[in-house]
Every structure is written in structure tokens, then in C-alpha cells.
Amino acid sequence: MDLGTLHLEETPAVRAMFPDVEPKNGFMTLEYSPRSTILLRAIGYDVQASIGFTYNWCGGTPFEIQVKTCELMTENPRCFVLNSMGTGKTRCVLWSFDYMKKLGLVNKLLVVCPLSTMSFTWAAEVLKATPHLRVAVLHGTAEKRKQLLANPNLDVLIINHDGLKIVAEEIVKRADIDCVCLDELAVYRNNTLRTKIAAKVVANKAVCWGLTGAPMPNAVTDVFQQIKIIRPGQVPKYFSWFRDELQVRLTQWKWANKPGAIEKAFAYMQPSVRFTLDDITELPEAYVPPPQQTDIEPEQKRAYDELRKFAGTLVKKGQVTAANAAVLMGKLLQISMGWVYDSKREVHHLGGGPRLEALVDIIEGAEGKTIVFAPYRHVLTGIVDHLEARGLHPLVVHGGTSPTDRNKVFTIFQGNLIDKSPLVVYPRCISHGLTLTAANTSVWFGPILSAETYDQCNARTRRVGQQRKQLFAHLWSTPMERKVYDLLTKRLLQQDTFLKLLEDASWD
Fold first, then answer.
1. CATH topology for 286-504?
2. Could you give the 3-state DSSP secondary structure of residue 236?
3. Are 189 and 225 spatial neighbours (Cβ–Cβ below 8 Å)?
């Protein structure tokens, strides 16, 4: 790679910054690199980042925002990439690593990401964007992961968030693994064992990039643990100090943002870059019609009314907290969709025929492929059985689908544009990183109780490469479902709303 050079007039300031460079005829020739640009800016020179002028992007053509993102990443060893979903963050990581590796600044890259994106997104992107880099997915038994990790010939190592603990000690000891990318950084927003392991792994690494398009999925304080991992000295020592700075306490469990709290939270999360999909290109329009109501069958309505009244009574007596109210809400939503678990984990089918037929109508009427989101595993099974009976032969991914089988399904769905078989999925299995632009219709068979997952799932079809207008359909039969959809679209669905929903979800 031609690193490029800078030719500057010899001055005392430049000589002081680069004492090892011998001047010639009154000029100094410097390597055009992140280090030299940073040092020159420190003494007043307006020098543009080097990667945009000296890197060949492995023959690819980056968007302008990808160049700017790579500029930040290559000049800031510990930073945050907050670009929204679908903006090409994965390639920015690979290009930045490849550039820095060629400069001799880093050796090996460790990518920690969701299980669903290890092979289909990250490993596949290495082969497309940086095919000269040698990559391995660390998955399987502990022995297999450690064996792969020990291979000295690899450049990029990919592991899932929860799998990191299996090889954490080995990675900490490996000085050659000096560049880490924590994809979907917001999974570390709580002080869990997973968060502590990630912090330990990156503590002694020279480079650590945190990627997330949604750093505050539930509250402004979500950023605290994320920042502590990437730049630990940048936030107050204790979470309570940080929360008191951004929020005011209303009740024992409820906090409200102080004026300017969001801006203060982002100010802590620096250095960072933030671009959205609209900064790249004009995508085809996305159409979100009003949620479509379908008839409810008598057995469903009877079970819904009985449980809602029971839950409402418990709430009024103070016997339900915001946390366990979500459990009762889940039962009401299951009943609304037609299948519900009992206390013995046995599934009871209560109906839901009209909603299933509405789903079939949408799939058969779609111009392209369709993704169906089923919020519960037993609901997913019922949907698949119905679609099979109608001859639609769906592809299926749920929590029990192995990573290998998931990759096969996604490859078939994304690659075969002729076959219109719908993809029926459990939302959390495809809520991060995947590009599924072969579909332009998404159907929520019922609502989910996570605004973050809802947004992430909808972004699977609205990404660079989408050529057609997208449709996002929502099916419902009960008041609870309609209220949840309204809150999801406003991104207001949090635990402190659950009690109110249980009290108000009547038919009146």
C-alpha cells in the first residue's frame, strides 16, 4: 500500500513534533498517517485524515459517510460509532482495521457480535470487503473455540456476546489481539456478568470501537456502562452519580430526564460519529398503514376478558409491580394471537383463524417476499403449520435454530429472488445486523414488548440495496395489542407503562 507522504516547510514546531525526521532543503517529508495528522493538528495545521487519501478500500467504493466514519475510527483508538441501522458500519470496521494493520498499528481484530450476525453478516462481509484477511467464527464447544483462537494465521476472530466468557482469559493474555469491535454495544447497558467480562477483555487492548445505532433504548442512563467499557475514565465513578446528573427521581422506581439530559448523555459518549440512512441515499418509500384489525373468536375473547379483569384487580390492590406486569401483558398478547401457555407449559389453541387468513392475504398479495414476525415460539409454530397447510412453504428461524441452519435460511431467502416463500421468524433472532432486502413486506402477527427489537427488526428490509417500496403491516384483535402498537411507534414502551396498560386494556 502506498502510504503517502506530506511535505512541510521546516519549522521549530514541526521539528519538535518529528525529531527523527531529517529536513532537506528546508522541507520535511512525513509519513501521511493517523499519527502524523493528529500531531500536526496539535500545532495548528489543518490536515485531513489520511485514510481517505492513502487507502484503496480493497477495490470498493465507500459512501462519503463511511469515509468519515473510518476517519474517526482510525484516528481515535477508543470511540463510538453511532450510525443508524443499514449505514454500512460493518465495512467501516473492516476497512479501518485493514488500513491500520497495513500501517503496522494493529495485528488482529476481535469482533464481538450477536449470534445471528456472526457468519451471515460479519464473516460474509470479510469475504466481500476484505477477502485477503483470514477469518474464523469462534462457535461450538469450548475446545473448538479455543482451538480456533490459537490459530496464529488468522486476522479476524468473530465471537458472540455470551460466548466471549468461554475464551475471555485467553484473549486477555493475547497481546496480538489488540483491536476489538463490540458490535451492538447497547447490550452492555446493564451491569451484568456479560458487561463485566467485556470490560475486562478490552481493558488492555490498544483499540476498541463500540458500535450501536440505538445507545439509549430505554433511558438516557443506558449509556453509562457502555462508556465505562470503551472509555472508563470519561463518566463518574458510580452509576448513581451519573443518574443524578441526568435525571430527577419521581417515585421509588420512576425517574424523569432533566432538561438537556439526552444532549449531556451524548456529550459523555465521545468521540463519536453519527449518521443515518438518509445521509447515504434516497431509499424507496416505506409505507406503514394503520394497524389492521381482525376478528377475534369467542374463546379468545372470553379468556382475554377474564385475565384482563383479574390483572386489573391485582394492579388496583398494589399486588403487581411494573416488572411483573410485563408477564401478565405477555399472556394477554398470547391469547390475542390465538395460542397461550398454561402453568405446565402446555400450549392451548384458542382460535385466531381470521388473523391467520389476513396474514395469508398479505403474503399472497405482496409484490415481493415477506417476513413475518411472530413474538412467541408457540405462536410461530401455529403460523408455520397454517402456512404449510395453505401451500406457502415458509422458511423458519427461531431460538432453537442452529447458527449453521440460520445462515442457510438467510442465504436462501436473500439469494433466491424467484421463490416467494415467506420467512417466519422469532424477532430476537434477526434483530441485529442482517440485510434482508429480498423482502419488501414485513408483517407483525402481533406486537412485541421491546421498542428496540421492534425498530431493529423493521430495519432488516430498509437498508442499502432495497429497490422497492416497503410495507410494514401490523395485525391486531384486542385493545391491548392496539395500545402496544401505538406505544411502539412512539418508542414509549417501557416497564413503567405496563401497569397503566393492564388497567386500561378493556374493550370500552
1. Rossmann fold (3.40.50)
2. coil
3. yes
60-279 domain in CATH 3.40.50.10810? yes
pTM of the full predicted structure?
0.74
In terms of Cβ atoms closer than 10 Å to its own Cβ (0-12, 13-18, 19+), residue 491 is: middle
H-only helix segments in 317-350: 322-337
For 345, the 3-state DSSP assignment is coil
Selection from 165, 128, 130, 125 nearest residue 145 by Cα: 165
The C-alpha cell that represents 162 in the structure block: 455470551
Q: What is the pLDDT along the chain (508 residues), one digit of tens a residue?
A: 456 888 888 898 888 889 988 889 889 898 898 989 999 998 889 888 999 989 999 988 898 999 999 999 999 999 999 988 778 899 999 999 999 999 999 999 999 998 878 888 899 999 999 999 999 999 999 999 999 999 999 999 999 999 999 999 999 999 999 999 999 998 999 989 999 999 999 999 999 999 998 888 778 899 999 999 999 999 999 999 999 999 999 887 788 889 988 889 988 999 999 887 777 666 788 888 889 999 899 999 999 998 888 887 777 777 766 667 778 888 999 999 998 887 777 888 898 899 999 999 899 888 789 999 999 999 999 999 999 999 999 999 999 998 889 989 999 999 877 788 999 999 988 867 788 999 999 999 999 988 888 888 998 998 877 888 899 999 999 988 998 898 887 765 444 454 455 455 555 5
Q: Give Cβ neighbours of residue 382 (< 8 Å, ≥ 6 apart).
A: 338, 339, 349, 352, 356
Q: Is the dihedral of CA 219, 489, 85, 278 positive or negative?
A: negative
Which of helix, strand or coil describes residue 324?
Answer: helix
492: nearest Cα among 197, 162, 218: 218
With both helix axes pointing from N to C terminus, report the angle between 164-173 and 142-149 in degrees, rounded to the nearest 10.
30
Residue 331: Cβ within 10 Å count: 17
Looking at the DSSP bridge assignments, the partners of residue 476 are 293
Cβ burial, residue 87 (10 Å; 0-12/13-18/19+):
buried
CA distance 380 to 446: 11
Residue 87: closest CA among 455, 462, 467, 457: 462
Alpha helices by DSSP H, 76-141: 89-102, 124-129
Domain ranges of the chain: 5-47, 60-279, 286-504
Cβ 154 vs Cβ 174: under 8 Å: no
What pairing do the DSSP bridges indicate for beta strands 27-31 and 78-81? unpaired
Q: Which three cell numbers stand for residue 287?
A: 409505507
CB atoms within 10 A of CB 11: 13
